[in-house]
Amino acid sequence: MDELPGSVGTSGSFSLRLGQTLFSSSSLLFMSFGVEFYSYTTFCYLVTVMGLVIPWSFTLALVDGYSVLVKCPIRQPGVLLIIVVGDWILSTLTLAAACSTASVIDLMLQSHAPFCTPKLCSRYRISAILAFLSWFLSLASSLLNLWLLPSL
Amino acid sequence: MDELPGSVGTSGSFSLRLGQTLFSSSSLLFMSFGVEFYSYTTFCYLVTVMGLVIPWSFTLALVDGYSVLVKCPIRQPGVLLIIVVGDWILSTLTLAAACSTASVIDLMLQSHAPFCTPKLCSRYRISAILAFLSWFLSLASSLLNLWLLPSL
């Protein structure tokens, strides 16, 4: 069987997973480091979702790294299905969190809220952008693995 | 070939499309009828997305109704692919709009914003809930058609 670049067990997938881990960790850090995010439901939601994405992506990055090293990619349809569904659920949650955060920041800036100083708001904004990037990579992983699924 | 309930050209699909049209129209009406939604980017975005979903779902409802009547469902892979991709893009946009609206309403209620009277805010909230329902049906259509795709 041909190897599809980016499907599980390839170096492309390893890069995608590393990117997801990196972007979601940075998003979490920008949101939570020295910032009172817990006053807002939306920001708490983003932090929760990122807390789920980081271990998932990191574990799969380790699996991919191992598969690349031993040159033996995972090809069990059951395992692949779990990965596709997990990726899809997490990417939906990430999209929801990123959109919510972006729209709340937009409203804060629009209404000149006193609780949103320029420095704080730019941090929140960077966090939302990083969450979007994480969503994009997660979606790419999910679609590439879904593409591989019927051929197994 | 067995007919998958809910795939394009079946009465299940017709019901799903009717539901999507109904929910998205109601969401649009609750948001825009006598309410100054255009002051907020998020609400404008919801209205725009609903304005895209309504004609798409309505057209496909007509196609499904016709297919059911003449008992000749569409089975061209190309057409089905366009429907799956279109549904998927619209469901992503709907999810983004619904989450953004929900989080903005939450922030408005939390900060006791003067521009959010209880009557107005409950309208916005109903609109967001209807958008979520529309997303759910749109996703169901997309997944059922995607399931059918490899068998053509």
Description:
- Two copies of one chain form a homodimer.
- Chain A is mostly helical and 152 residues long.
- The first copy, chain A, is built from four helices and no strands.
- Chain A binds chain B through residues 40-42, 45, 92, 95-97, 99-104, 106-108, 110-111, 113, 150, and chain B through 40-42, 45, 92, 95-97, 99-104, 106-108, 110-111, 113, 150.
Give a short synopsis of this structure:
Chain A contains four helices and no strands. In chain A, helix 1 (11-32) runs antiparallel to helix 2 and helix 3 (77-110) packs antiparallel against helix 4 (118-148). By secondary structure, chain A is mainly α.
What are the salient characteristics of this protein?
homodimer; 152 residues; mainly alpha
Secondary-structure class of chain A: mainly alpha
For the terminal residues of chain A, how far apart are their CA atoms? 9 Å
Biggest interface, and residues per chain? A-B, 21 and 21 residues
The largest pleated sheet of chain A is described as:
none
* Low-confidence sequence ranges of chain A: none
Residue share in helix of chain A: over 70%
- The quaternary organization reads as homodimer
Mean pLDDT over the residues of chain A:
88
Radius of gyration of chain A: 17 Å
Q: How much β-strand is present in the residues of chain A?
A: under 5%
- What's the helix count of chain A? 4
According to DSSP, the number of beta strands of chain A is 0
Categorize the overall geometry of chain A. Answer: elongated
Query: What string, H for helix and E for strand, traces the elements of chain A in order?
Result: HHHH
